[in-house]
Amino acid sequence: MDMRRDSLTSIGYLTNLAGRLLVRALERRLGSAAGPMPVFLALVDGKALAQKDLARLAAVEQPTMANTLARMERDGLVIGAPDPADRRSTLLRLTRIGQQRAESALAAAGAVNVLALSALEPAERATFIDMLQRVIARLEADG
Fold first, then answer.
1. Which fold has domain 11-142?
2. pLDDT at 51
3. The whole model's pTM is what?
Protein backbone atom coordinates (compact mmCIF):
# COMPACT_ATOMS: atom_id res chain seq x y z
CA MET A 1 0.00 0.00 0.00
CA ASP A 2 1.42 3.39 -1.04
CA MET A 3 0.58 5.79 1.83
CA ARG A 4 1.09 8.82 -0.40
CA ARG A 5 -1.82 7.72 -2.57
CA ASP A 6 -4.13 6.19 0.01
CA SER A 7 -6.33 8.99 1.32
CA LEU A 8 -7.49 6.80 4.21
CA THR A 9 -3.97 6.76 5.66
CA SER A 10 -2.53 10.03 4.35
CA ILE A 11 -1.81 12.33 7.29
CA GLY A 12 -1.95 15.37 4.99
CA TYR A 13 -5.31 14.42 3.52
CA LEU A 14 -6.84 13.43 6.86
CA THR A 15 -5.68 16.51 8.79
CA ASN A 16 -6.76 18.78 5.93
CA LEU A 17 -10.18 17.10 5.80
CA ALA A 18 -10.56 17.30 9.59
CA GLY A 19 -9.56 20.97 9.48
CA ARG A 20 -12.09 21.78 6.76
CA LEU A 21 -14.83 19.93 8.65
CA LEU A 22 -13.95 21.80 11.85
CA VAL A 23 -14.18 25.12 9.98
CA ARG A 24 -17.57 24.15 8.48
CA ALA A 25 -18.90 23.20 11.91
CA LEU A 26 -17.65 26.51 13.31
CA GLU A 27 -19.17 28.50 10.46
CA ARG A 28 -22.55 26.79 11.00
CA ARG A 29 -22.46 27.98 14.61
CA LEU A 30 -21.22 31.47 13.77
CA GLY A 31 -23.48 31.99 10.79
CA SER A 32 -20.51 33.55 9.00
CA ALA A 33 -17.05 32.77 7.68
CA ALA A 34 -14.39 31.70 10.16
CA GLY A 35 -11.59 33.58 8.34
CA PRO A 36 -10.96 36.04 11.19
CA MET A 37 -10.55 33.23 13.75
CA PRO A 38 -6.71 33.35 13.88
CA VAL A 39 -6.88 37.13 14.41
CA PHE A 40 -9.50 36.71 17.13
CA LEU A 41 -7.31 34.13 18.88
CA ALA A 42 -4.26 36.38 18.72
CA LEU A 43 -5.94 39.62 19.80
CA VAL A 44 -8.80 38.56 22.09
CA ASP A 45 -6.83 39.25 25.26
CA GLY A 46 -6.31 42.90 24.38
CA LYS A 47 -3.00 42.54 22.55
CA ALA A 48 -2.04 44.75 19.64
CA LEU A 49 0.08 43.09 16.96
CA ALA A 50 1.53 43.97 13.58
CA GLN A 51 0.18 42.37 10.42
CA LYS A 52 3.40 40.39 9.92
CA ASP A 53 3.06 38.88 13.40
CA LEU A 54 -0.58 37.99 12.79
CA ALA A 55 0.35 36.34 9.47
CA ARG A 56 3.08 34.32 11.20
CA LEU A 57 0.77 33.21 14.01
CA ALA A 58 -1.94 32.21 11.52
CA ALA A 59 0.61 30.49 9.25
CA VAL A 60 -0.63 32.40 6.20
CA GLU A 61 1.05 34.61 3.65
CA GLN A 62 1.10 38.39 4.17
CA PRO A 63 -1.35 39.10 1.30
CA THR A 64 -3.87 36.66 2.77
CA MET A 65 -3.62 38.32 6.15
CA ALA A 66 -3.84 41.78 4.56
CA ASN A 67 -7.11 40.77 2.88
CA THR A 68 -8.51 39.33 6.12
CA LEU A 69 -7.57 42.47 8.05
CA ALA A 70 -9.01 44.75 5.37
CA ARG A 71 -12.37 42.94 5.65
CA MET A 72 -12.20 43.05 9.44
CA GLU A 73 -11.39 46.76 9.41
CA ARG A 74 -14.25 47.41 6.95
CA ASP A 75 -16.59 45.52 9.31
CA GLY A 76 -15.39 47.52 12.32
CA LEU A 77 -13.71 44.56 14.02
CA VAL A 78 -10.11 45.82 14.11
CA ILE A 79 -8.43 49.18 14.21
CA GLY A 80 -4.83 50.11 13.60
CA ALA A 81 -2.54 52.59 15.28
CA PRO A 82 1.12 53.47 14.62
CA ASP A 83 3.60 51.30 16.50
CA PRO A 84 5.39 53.63 18.96
CA ALA A 85 8.54 51.52 18.61
CA ASP A 86 8.48 51.55 14.78
CA ARG A 87 6.48 54.30 13.06
CA ARG A 88 6.58 52.36 9.78
CA SER A 89 4.51 49.60 11.37
CA THR A 90 0.87 49.57 12.41
CA LEU A 91 -0.36 47.68 15.44
CA LEU A 92 -3.81 46.18 15.13
CA ARG A 93 -6.24 45.53 17.95
CA LEU A 94 -9.85 44.49 18.25
CA THR A 95 -12.52 47.13 18.54
CA ARG A 96 -15.27 46.73 21.13
CA ILE A 97 -17.43 45.04 18.49
CA GLY A 98 -14.45 42.91 17.43
CA GLN A 99 -13.88 41.85 21.03
CA GLN A 100 -17.53 40.81 21.36
CA ARG A 101 -17.40 38.91 18.06
CA ALA A 102 -14.14 37.24 19.11
CA GLU A 103 -15.64 36.08 22.39
CA SER A 104 -18.65 34.62 20.53
CA ALA A 105 -16.37 32.95 18.00
CA LEU A 106 -14.21 31.43 20.74
CA ALA A 107 -17.29 30.09 22.50
CA ALA A 108 -18.45 28.51 19.23
CA ALA A 109 -14.97 27.07 18.67
CA GLY A 110 -15.08 25.58 22.16
CA ALA A 111 -18.36 23.87 21.33
CA VAL A 112 -16.91 22.49 18.10
CA ASN A 113 -13.84 21.23 19.98
CA VAL A 114 -16.06 19.44 22.49
CA LEU A 115 -18.04 17.88 19.64
CA ALA A 116 -14.92 16.73 17.77
CA LEU A 117 -13.20 15.36 20.86
CA SER A 118 -16.34 13.52 21.96
CA ALA A 119 -15.38 10.89 19.36
CA LEU A 120 -12.43 9.97 21.62
CA GLU A 121 -12.25 8.40 25.04
CA PRO A 122 -11.26 10.89 27.76
CA ALA A 123 -7.76 9.40 28.06
CA GLU A 124 -7.26 9.65 24.29
CA ARG A 125 -8.07 13.35 24.11
CA ALA A 126 -4.93 14.64 25.81
CA THR A 127 -2.81 12.17 23.86
CA PHE A 128 -4.38 13.27 20.57
CA ILE A 129 -3.76 16.96 21.31
CA ASP A 130 -0.20 16.24 22.43
CA MET A 131 0.49 14.28 19.25
CA LEU A 132 -0.91 17.06 17.04
CA GLN A 133 1.23 19.62 18.87
CA ARG A 134 4.35 17.50 18.31
CA VAL A 135 3.58 17.03 14.60
CA ILE A 136 3.01 20.78 14.22
CA ALA A 137 6.26 21.58 16.04
CA ARG A 138 8.20 19.22 13.80
CA LEU A 139 6.71 20.71 10.65
CA GLU A 140 7.33 24.27 11.88
CA ALA A 141 10.96 23.38 12.56
CA ASP A 142 11.27 22.21 8.95
CA GLY A 143 10.54 25.49 7.44
1. Arc Repressor Mutant, subunit A (1.10.10)
2. 95
3. 0.80
